[in-house]
Amino acid sequence: MELSFSRANADVDQIISHLLEVSGDIRQPALIREMLLAVLKVGQEVDYLADLKLINRTLREMRFTTKVFGPYRDRKKVTIFGSARTEPDNEMYRKCVDFSRKLAERGYMIITGGGPGIMQAGNEGAGSENSFAVNIRLPFEQAPNPIMYRNKRLITYKYFFNRKVAFVKEANAMAVFPGGFGTLDEAMEVFTLIQTGKTSPKPLILIDDQDGYWEQFFDFVKESLLVKGFISGEDFSIFTITKSVDEAVAVIENFYRTFHSLRFIDNRLVIRLNKPLAPEQIAILEDEFSELVREGDRIRCCGLFPEENDEPDLANLPRISLLFDHHHYGLLLAFIHRINTF
């Protein structure tokens, strides 16, 4: 029998409906129905065992990720990347401990890869009670650090791609300390996701050492990417480079000063705010960021959209909305920074 996501599966649809009913307490049953059909279709279409194991493990890992992070949705989180080989007596280790401690004092939770080096420093500064560890199973370097060993917020992944989803999806900001291939891979992924709008705008802070690890990276970006036209000038809004822990903390805090969150509804960008904007402030935004707004539209104050009813805790926030030009995600970061000056 060829299965379809439309309701044309005869007995299978009835069995799935009965399964949802007897399971009880199923949230979003329409989506769960689609997931069950997808699994059945995989069973019909895939006979290569390795592919089936990958799909199965991915679903299990993502389910557990959601379970672990779910109770902490109301707390902002910062993901910290950096080398597993940074020793505790290193300047950057101590700087990371200080950075995560100051964030925890302000109510943030810290997400690290759960291993040694900068990851351990991030967990150490925040304390195990304010930390998550999204670990990866490797033949070397990546046993859970002693801060997070047996912590209920420790997750160990088989696949890097599932781990990367957790790093970015659950974070309200990212901080990257100097590191090797793995650190650069994680940083570049975040650059790409923000630049292409595949994750919500959030602060990306490159915390530098005294040798200018990230300053050298910045020179490369200017001389080899910007000059050759591989990126645009507005992409420099995506990140901040600093050697100061206090500045790094301030960048994160200021990002959520007036801006709260955003959501796309059809083609409309809805920006939720911590306080309303005055008409003259909206006029300033329209003047300074006209490229963001599609021709014929304007930035306007608005209320709750019906599609936002699944986020009732945000219902009373003031909002502005616009038809967004999707070519300008770097400029969108600058737009948010400008909103936060009001």
From TrEMBL:
Signal peptide: none annotated. It is an enzyme of class 3 (hydrolase). It catalyses: AMP + H2O = D-ribose 5-phosphate + adenine. GO terms for cellular component: cytosol. It comes from the Bacteria. Pfam families: Lysine_decarbox. One of its GO terms (biological process) is cytokinin biosynthetic process. Its EC number is 3.2.2.4. One of its GO terms (molecular function) is AMP nucleosidase activity. This is AMP nucleosidase.
